[in-house]
Sequence to fold (234 residues):
Amino acid sequence: MLIAGNWKMYKGQGETAEFCIDLRRHLADLEGVEVAVCPPFTSLAVAVQVLAGTDVAVAAQNVYWEPEGAFTGEVSAPMLRELGVYGAIVGHSERRQFFGETDEGVGRRTRAALDAGLSVIACVGETEEERERGETEDVLRRQLSVLKAEDNLVVAYEPVWAIGTGKTATPEIAQQAHAFIKSLLDVPVLYGGSVKPENAEELLELPAVDGALVGGASLDVDSFASICLSASRS
Ligand code: 13P
Fold:
């Protein structure tokens, strides 16, 4: 079971240090759950420092496929490794929607990150229109076609209509989508999309759900820790 907090573009260094100090205290006795936080690039170093010696891992929110070069604005896997970062999210729907990332690019980012020794959380998920048109499985099949199962790869199923909307997938929808993903790729599958302390338990106890990628509710240390505790009971 893995619970990862995707902070998106929130928390500079100061807030990150404060959060991580509190998180250490909250999770001191947690067992049976892997926990990761994914701060913005500029807050990774401080998170790595404050969480050193704990079981909480630090991951980035993206990673580029070239190790270095003239690629303004990008950060490479070796750079993240040098910082002590353990992994990266790749292909988040916000990257696809607002920054033009494609399935092919997601495949290349994932490959390079895994080859450099990072763990990867690769995100997939359909939009509301795609679900209404009955295309969910086609979309997932296409998004997953650039990935292959291997150690250190985890997929996050994040239906776009559930992200930041308060509309969580029903347990039936989540279970069905996760089972479909696992039928194509034999990897752990996290659920993401409006996960909160109030709904974490019913999602995390589903047989095909191996953890959660939490956005908004991961920004508050009490609510994030409470989701981690739910995971330890599931
Ligand atoms: P919310 O939990 O805020 O819906 O965000 C989910 C998400 O995008 C995690 O990557």
Q: What stands out?
A: The longest strand covers residues 119-124.
